Amino acid sequence: MRNLLAAVLVQSLLIASPASAQGAETAESVVRKLEANQVFDTARIEARLTVTSRLGKTENEFTSWSRAGGDALLEITSGPDRGQKVLRQGQNVYLYYPDADEVIWLKGSALKNSVMGSDFSYEDLTDDKTILQRFDALLSGREDFGGRPCWKLTLTAKSRNETYAKEELWVDAERFVTLHAVLYSASGKAIRDLVSSDVRTVNGKNVPFSTVMTDLLKKNSTTAMSILAAEIGLAIPEAYFNREKLSW
Fold it and tell me: Could you list the mean pLDDT of each consecutive 10-residue stretch along the chain, which spans 248 residues?
């Protein structure tokens, strides 16, 4: 679910179509409606990221601005990493550290570093291909999750370069939001579990305001994201996506 991170941290939130009658959907149509619910022109999100590990709990709040085409700016507004900024321009990711007053272009292995100590890496921010370009999709049928009717999808990576070799998704059959995901390594081991809830409609988009990612390979390791405020379709100054302006 690398797109999940984009929908959370970089925030890529067409209105989802009503669910078709059972049996009328295909794997491709479910995936396309899932992605259609994330199509936007611009978005602004305020959120809190809570990371729990064996070392304790840390919280950072951030604001993100994003626009169609993949450009996005994330600014940490409170917490241990306050003042840091992450800018994505297409496939490029830049970090700004206020203490050092410098901008770093992340490349190679540096992209695997953790974002705010979470279970997500900067590499998760860089893939802007569609799901069907990256995965083969299989529709298993209907299965409830959290009291909601869902389409059960299995995605198998087309490339060995994908972070997850397989993903099992439970997609809300009416709102076309992923409510549950289990993510697998190349060896077939489940390594991440994701649950989304508190789905609200923002300017025609169905947005989960609460998301919890659990690292199944570590004891008591979770990353929880709570959206505090969301706007879609607002005007965003061009300067927000300018690398030279990161220190403003």
Answer: 39 32 78 90 93 91 88 91 88 85 81 74 66 94 96 96 92 96 96 95 94 91 93 93 81
The pTM assigned to this predicted structure is 0.84
Query: How far is 111 from 93, CA to CA, in rounded Å?
Result: 8
pLDDT the model gives residue 21: 39
SS3 6: helix
Maximum CA pair distance of the chain? 57
**What's the DSSP call for residue 159?**
S
Secondary structure class of 19 (helix, strand, coil): coil
Check if the beta carbon of residue 222 is closer than 8 Å to that of residue 212: yes
2-13+25-245 maps to CATH 1.20.1080.10: no
What lies within 8 Å, CB to CB, of 161 at 6+ separation is none
Q: Give the start-to-end residue ranges of the domains of the chain.
A: 2-13+25-245
Q: Where are the beta strands (DSSP E) in the chain?
A: 42-53, 56-67, 72-78, 85-89, 92-97, 102-106, 135-145, 148-157, 166-172, 178-184, 190-202, 205-215, 222-232
Q: What angle do CA 88, 92, 98 make, to 5 degrees?
A: 60
In this predicted structure, what is the pLDDT of residue 47? 93
Is the distance from CB of 76 to CB of 82 less than 8 angstroms?
yes
Residue 110 CB neighbours (<10 A): 14
